[in-house]
Structure prediction request, 192 residues.
Amino acid sequence: MGDLSKNLDSQKSISYCDDMIRVLKDKREIDVLVQSFDNVKTLRSSSLADFNEVQNMLQDYESKIAACKKKTEAAKSEVVSDAELDLLNKELEEECNEEFITEEINELECKRISIQEKTEKLRESKQDERRAERTLSMFASVTNIIPDLYDPSKVSGHIVDRDKKLVKQFEFDQEQMTSFDTCDSIWKMIGS
Prediction:
C-alpha cells in the first residue's frame, strides 16, 4: 500500500506539472500570471498597510482605554464613602469649634489683661488715696487745719484745736484776696 500512495502522489505531481507547462507555453497566460502576481503583491502590500494602520489604531484605543480606566480608578478612589464623608465633616466641625474656642480664649485673654490693668490702676489709685490721706493727716497734725477739698474754686476748711476741743470753719474768696493775703490770714489763724 505504501507503493500505491507514492504512485498516486507522483501521478498527481506529474499531472500538475503538465498543466503548468501548458500554461507557461502560452505567452498571454504568462502575462496574466505575472499581472496576477503583481496584483497579489499590491493587494498584499495594501493589506499589510491597512493591517499596520488598524494595529496602530488598536494600540491607540487600548492606550486610551487604559488611561480612561486609570482615571476611573482614580475617580473611584477620590469618591468618599458616606462614612468617610461624615468623619471628614466631624473633623471640619471640630476644627471650626477649635477656631471658635481659640477666638473665645483670645477674647477672654484680652478681657483678663484689661481687668488686670484696671485692677492695677485701682490699686495705684487706692495707694494714691492713702498717701493723700496720710499727707492730709500729717498736714492737719502740723497745722491744725483740715482743708475742704470738694470745692477747688475757694479756699476753705476747718481749724481744729485739740486742746480746747474747738473747731472753727474758715473760707476765703480768691477773687477778693491775693494768694499772699490768703496765706497770711491762714498763718494768723494757726497762730491764734
